[in-house]
Amino acid sequence: EEQEAWALYGIDCEMCLTEAGLEVVWLGVVDEAERVVLDVLCRPGHAVLDAHTRFHGQTQADFCGASAVPLDEARRQLRDALPENAVLAGTALQGDMAALRVAHPWYLDTAVLYPREPVAPCGKSENLPNLGTAGVAVSLQRLALHQLGQLVQVRTHSPVEDARASLRLVKHKLRCLEALRVRYHSPPHLPEEVSLRALLG
């Protein structure tokens, strides 16, 4: 039986700081056509120390109000919304997945797909060699501007907007890799299970 094609979904979370650490307050998911699949406010489970309103625009009254749902309910909605063949596209997904307390087998992260920025060593010692650094991931805002020529996060962050931007960046990278594969007649270095042909249709 022929394997069903993979389906890309963009995902992003906005957080607040609570007594337990960072907790999800806003979850956004879009499908491959950038249609909104989920756009839900999540009620944190612990006392809020910093709502992070300056980042995402939502106040504590917003994500603790009647329209917000507990994280378990948001996770249930996410599980119901994603098909078994879903591949998640996002930026710095490790943090989002940890905050959601969700494990997913297939994802493509712009923080991994795109080169990292070098950073200067914090300190030097004459007795130790300069081992260099792995660098830091380029922000979604800068990636979208430099790779796609698009402005995102102009004022505050929306997880739906960020999910769309991440999805576009992943598609852009996959198209570039596919072009290289065609040009040099060799597959790019990606897991066999997530083939470019399946992802790009």
From TrEMBL:
Any one of the GO CC terms: nucleus
Nucleus recorded as keyword: yes
Alphabetically ordered keywords of this record: Hydrolase, Nuclease, Nucleus
Top-level taxonomic group: Eukaryota
Keyword check for Nucleus: yes
Subcellular location: Nucleus
Organism from which the protein derives: Alexandrium monilatum
Molecular-function GO terms, alphabetical: exonuclease activity; nucleic acid binding
Protein's name according to its UniProt entry: Exonuclease domain-containing protein
Cited InterPro entries: REXO1/3/4-like, Ribonucl_H, RNaseH-like_sf, RNaseH_sf
Record domain Exonuclease: where: 7-179
The family this protein is said to belong to: Belongs to the REXO1/REXO3 family.
